[in-house]
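To: structure subgroup
Subject: Chain for Friday's discussion

All,

I'm putting the inputs and outputs inline so they're searchable in the archive.
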Amino acid sequence: MQQLLTHEPLGTQTRELLSDLGGTPDEVARYLESLGVRGVRNNSECCAVAEFLAAIVASHPEVRSVRVFRRFVILSRNGPFWLTAVRLPRPVRSFVLAFDAGEYPNLLRSPGPLRRSDASNPPMEEEQRRAP
């Protein structure tokens, strides 16, 4: 598993974590599987990439939540700069789209009960319809 966050800016570290996942969607999937990461399709807070990041980034005292969308990761934070957006590298972006389409079934987990925030936030499908 990756190192916990240091004093470097949160966005920079998140970008590095995402870049280290792999150079292709299949490499991203293999890496996440090797760590035992499982996620829920079409769920911005529980997809495989969000679960991976949450295990590392959410341990930062400023981070309230991690949400992965089609092109970005959004970190909700405490304090005056309450959102940090990080663009997904192309291989991770392609992985997210493939994962949501049902590829990589070995990375799926059963959804279980919804998190409280899921009831008030649109799923990834809704975000994709709004994205240009």
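Points worth raising on Friday:
The chain has five helices and three strands.
The helical segments are 10-19, 25-34, 48-56, 90-100, 124-130.

D.
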